[in-house]
């Protein structure tokens, strides 16, 4: 099997969020897909270890926003490279609240959806969640959506280990990989004071390839 074949699949970049038991959670995904038009339904895939999935299972709802091409890497790092178990990702940022009481970020966003869960499917490491769209709003018709390809090539983004598209095999690369965001430092040595340029974790979070 050639893992490079998967790189030819096209994706967007999105933030999914929810609220339950007085707590907000959200994460970056590349798996938001429209599966039906009537009724309008979207599917997402989340890792079983994801805190956002756990709260979605409690609330039975989720919000999904489409990131625009000019979204900052700081916004992506906030939602993609730390856990909602450890941080309030919505603290201090511009945000809205949908009709299902889920928060969503408003900076770097060109469309949003509010969904009520109608079914789930266990697919091993991840769970596919299908939601019926209750609200849909185009926030910026002139802003192009960020593609997963541009996320990697224009923004030098990394793929977190919890993402469905993450590939563990680093080939013949020699170096160290961040266990949080997947960033690879190509070096024979890892400085003790090294800080990951993507997620900000220190050298203790790196593993030798």
UniProtKB/TrEMBL annotation:
Domain Rubredoxin-like residue range list: 173-209
Cofactor dependence: Fe(3+)
Keyword Isomerase tagged: no
Alphabetically ordered keywords of this record: Oxidoreductase
Origin: domain of life: Bacteria
GO molecular function, one term: riboflavin reductase (NADPH) activity
InterPro entries xrefs: Flavin_Rdtase-like_dom, NADH-dep_flavin_reductase, Rubredoxin-like_dom, RUBY_RBDX, Split_barrel_FMN-bd
Transmembrane stretches, start-end: none
SMART domains listed in its UniProt record: Flavin_Reduct (SM00903)
Pfam families listed in its UniProt record: Flavin_Reduct, RUBY_RBDX
Identification of the protein by name: NADH-FMN oxidoreductase RutF, flavin reductase (DIM6/NTAB) family
Organism: Enterocloster lavalensis
